[in-house]
C-alpha cells in the first residue's frame, strides 16, 4: 500500500469549516454554556459565541460537547487546587491529552 505524502500548508491558507448546524439544541447549548463558564478564565476564546461556533461546525456536536464538558470540569478542579497555574497552558495540555 502506498504511503500518503505529507503536504505542508501555510497557516494563512487554512479556513474554518462551514457551519453544519444553524444552532445547538437547548440541551447542547446548556452543556456548552456550562463548559464555557468553567474554562472562560483561561482566555482561550474571546467570547462564548467563538467557543460555540466550533460545535456548530462539528458533524456530531453532542459528542464534542461531552468531551469539552469533561475537560472543563477537570480543568476547573485543577485550577481550584492550583490557583497560580498558567490557566491557558493547563487547558491546552488537557485538550491535547483528550486527543
Explained architecture:
Helix 1 (26-39) packs parallel to helix 3 and helix 3 packs across helix 4. The model has no long low-confidence stretch (mean pLDDT 89). The chain has one domain (24-98). The longest helix is centred in the last third of the chain and has 21 residues, at 61-81. It contains four helices and no strands. It is globular and about 50 Å long. Helices cover 58% and strands 0% of the residues. It has helices at residues 26-39, 48-57, 61-81, 87-98. With 99 residues, it is mainly alpha-helical.
Compile the SSE list and pairings:
Elements: H1 26-39, H2 48-57, H3 61-81, H4 87-98
Helix pairs in contact: 1-3, 3-4
Total number of strands: 0
β-strand percent reads under 5%
Tell me about the largest β-sheet. Answer: none
Structural class: mainly alpha
| Rg (CA only) | 16 Å
**Span from first to last CA?**
26 Å
Average pLDDT figure: 89
Spans of at least 5 consecutive residues with low confidence: none
Number of helices: 4
Query: What is the overall shape?
Result: globular
Q: Tell me the helix content.
A: 55-70%
Number of domains: 1
Order of helices and strands: HHHH
Amino acid at each position: 500500500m502506498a504511503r500518503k505524502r505529507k503536504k505542508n500548508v501555510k497557516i494563512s491558507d487554512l479556513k474554518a469549516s462551514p457551519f453544519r448546524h444553524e444552532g445547538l439544541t437547548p440541551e447542547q447549548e446548556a452543556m456548552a454554556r456550562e463548559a464555557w463558564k468553567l474554562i472562560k478564565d483561561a482566555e482561550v476564546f474571546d467570547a462564548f459565541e467563538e467557543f460555540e461556533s466550533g460545535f456548530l461546525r462539528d458533524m456530531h456536536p453532542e459528542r464534542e460537547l461531552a468531551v469539552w464538558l469533561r475537560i472543563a470540569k477537570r480543568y476547573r478542579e485543577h485550577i481550584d487546587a492550583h490557583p497560580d497555574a498558567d490557566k491557558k497552558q493547563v487547558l491546552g495540555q488537557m485538550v491535547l491529552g483528550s486527543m
